[in-house]
Amino acid sequence: MSKQTDDLFKNIVSHAKEYGFVFQSSEIYDGLSAVYDYGQLGAELKNNLKTYWWKSMVQLNENIVGIDSAIFMHPTIWKASGHVDGFNDPMIDNKDSKKRYRADQLIEDKIDRYEKDGKSDKAAQLQQDLDDALNADDLPRLKTIIEEHNIVCPVSGTKNWTEVRQFNLMFATQMGAMADGAEQVYLRPETAQGIFVNFLNVQKTGRMKIPFGIAQIGKAFRNEVIARQFIMRMREFEQMELQFFVRPGTELEWYEKWKETRLKWHLALGSNPAKYRYHDHVKLAHYANAAVDIEYDFPFGFKEVEGIHSRTDFDLKQHQEFSKKKMQYFDPEINQNYIPYVVETSVGLDRLFLTVFANSLVHEDLSTEEKQDSRVVLKFHPAIAPVKAAIFPLTKKDGLPEKAREIMNKLKLDFNMQYDEKDAIGKRYRRQDAIGTPYCITVDHQTLEDNTVTIRHRDSMEQERVAIDQLRTIIGDLVSWNNLLDQLQ
């Protein structure tokens, strides 16, 4: 990472903390590695992103329904899914720093550095070597690659590495009152299996016909050894997943449709299309016949935000075998029973949060010939902004605060609002810019005469005079979910 991009990333992290979006978990006890808390504004933004996803999946699609499955599930589920035996990452330790890393990510970081240094040929060759080693599950080869390319520990700066070995990422715990008689269960490492084991329940109770989807938002837990890149890689995180059940033989057609649909969903938020790319998987998971990541260009390089996978019939077939329950669907159109194939779309909510935050944080130079000026602004799409509008009385006297409170009390029934009467009006604008509030409403002396107020628009900084009784409609139209969802139709 260059100094410029490193500074940009540090600005994102510090801004997120300073303005109440993201805090280090247990910070007063020196924190807990790779675990974060969402502050007052972060919780609002996160909830709005969840709402956008849920509306776009469940509300806009008659053949998609949502569920909320439990975090604890029968341990045999994870045996059937392959997580007990195969949910591993190739890990390597540095003997000097005592730090543990994912071997493939150390090599990927080196590839990024080669690219940034203009060594494209070297980057391409290293990528090929990495792909070959991963496809062959050749752990000694991964260590050899690390040594050949002089990859050092980011902490100690040395090349004193252990052998590469596999490390299971699931958290295990005991369920039961007595440790001796307790059953070992796992905190779910993904939300998908909760959907698969409820396939028949949803299909029958909802009278669902293929093709149909089941959506879910929920927490998942992985014992990630590497704590880095802020909320990109955490031990406790949230996923937004759709499992879309289709007739066998049609899965790749649906896979292409969902690829296009999901990228369109991200771009509707106002992101720069040049910041996104598809990255096809070279090594497919054992259950997949096609897989692609939607990647975003973060300050530290392109990283996955969402995965689209054609999972075939692996999951339902495995659960049928381990549970001895038939996981079949009778298709009246072809008069046939079959186990459906599945196309999955899976978004990391925390990564999406970071994507939106990084994409929205802008430093603007407002200097003129007369004076130097600048502002820091979060240009969130109004529909997902944590605070929709702020109310300012111009002064703390002459009845202006009382009038402003009167307006606030009416609007807060529909919108998340803030009231602010401290400091000069310019400083108040800057505070709201920094948290992404799209509209500021100022109550002044003219308001008492004609019941009008000033609305100031965040992005253009232009102001307009409007009647108080029109505020609910005006703000409602500006922050409406329709402005996002219409783009997805």
From TrEMBL:
**UniProt EC number:** 6.1.1.14
One GO term under biological process is: glycyl-tRNA aminoacylation
Which EC class, in a word? ligase
Annotated keywords: Aminoacyl-tRNA synthetase, ATP-binding, Cytoplasm, Ligase, Nucleotide-binding, Protein biosynthesis
Molecular functions (GO terms): ATP binding; bis(5'-nucleosyl)-tetraphosphatase (asymmetrical) activity; glycine-tRNA ligase activity
**Positions of substrate binding:** 102, 190, 237-241, 344-348
Where in this chain does the record put each Aminoacyl-transfer RNA synthetases class-II family profile domain? 138-393
On whether NADP is a keyword of this UniProt record, the answer is no
Report which superkingdom the organism of origin falls in. Bacteria
Q: Carries keyword Ligase?
A: yes
List the Pfam families hit by this protein, alphabetically. Answer: HGTP_anticodon, tRNA-synt_2b
Which GO terms of the cellular component aspect does the record hold? cytoplasm; extracellular exosome; microvesicle
Subcellular localization, per the record?
Cytoplasm
Concerning its family, UniProt says: Belongs to the class-II aminoacyl-tRNA synthetase family.
Looking up PANTHER family in the UniProt record yields: DNA POLYMERASE SUBUNIT GAMMA-2, MITOCHONDRIAL, GLYCYL-TRNA SYNTHETASE/DNA POLYMERASE SUBUNIT GAMMA-2
Q: What does this protein do?
A: Catalyzes the attachment of glycine to tRNA(Gly).
Which NCBIfam families does the UniProt entry name for this protein?
glyS_dimeric (TIGR00389), PRK04173.1 (NF003211)
How is this protein named in the record?
Answer: Glycine--tRNA ligase
Organism annotation: Sphingobacterium paucimobilis HER1398
Q: Which gene encodes it?
A: glyQS
